[in-house]
Amino acid sequence: MLLFLLQRAVGMFITMLLVSIMVFIIMELPPGDYAERLAFRKFSGTGAQISESDLDNLRAEYGLDRPAHERYINWISGIILRGDFGEAFAFETSVNNVIGQRLWLTLSILFSTLIITYSISIPIGIYAAVHRHSLPDYSLTVFSYLGLAIPNFLLALVLLYISVKFFGSNVGGLFSPEFKDAPWTIAKFWDLLKHLIIPAIVLSWSAIAFQLQTVRATMSDELNKLSVTAARARGIPESKLLVKYPARLAVNPVVSTTGFDVNRIFSELPIVALVLGISDLGELLIKSYIDLDMFVAGAILLMMTFIIVFFNFLSDIFLAFLDPRVKLAGD
Prior knowledge:
Layout: H1 2-28, H2 34-43, H3 52-61, H4 68-82, E1 87-88, E2 93-94, H5 95-130, H6 135-149, H7 152-167, H8 186-223, H9 226-233, H10 238-244, H11 246-250, H12 252-256, H13 258-276, H14 281-290, H15 294-322, H16 324-330
Antiparallel strand pairs: 1-2
């Protein structure tokens, strides 16, 4: 097991190293740089002429005049050795300060969405498989189709409309007005939890529909295996039999696709956050990319990718505990 974990950890490190190179290339792809964007904003409409030497001075001030490979080495070494993601040019402070609170809010939405997704899809999917061709089974099938067909942002708009029209309130943001700029207290944390439920439900909508069908199909297949029939013949109680044999293997596809669920959440979060008025990393990523504030954009891309890779790493570990065949295949 230790060798299995070591192999996965080394694989994760190599993956992140390659990802950092790809992220830096993406940072370099847009035409121009932050010096040109800053000069345009400062002098646009003033009639002042910007010379190439002025741009060169700005690039030297922000360290953009150095070769790309040197800037990459300085950037990645600062992250690995000091946890420093560089300077956020547009904010005139470090990237760590800019993305710090938004990172924790984004992670809060992520974990809330995953908890809702799995706590609903796994038990209900198992129930539907055990009670196939019943009214609840058919009802869950209809729900799954709706979950896959209705976009999350449309559900967010519907919830906004219902909240304003019928309850005189809204579900926008992650804090009530009185807690938005207040220091952290138990009351503010509770207010955050109350506001997290709506974006978590919106983002988990399609994931629940997909994972529910996955668990139902896998559980149905496991129930028909000879090992389950033999266990019944030995007189094992039905509830214990379901947990020990088919249910344990039925959640394998769910565990193995956790990284894909995280990736999907990050992909859908920016537009859902825009609809619900949430300030998350997705919104900051788009803004920083437009502003060519590339250290901010690169840090967000790198952290989101790391979270996805880390969840894949955790899913490998959980799969090894659930199904020893995974560990043997890795060996």
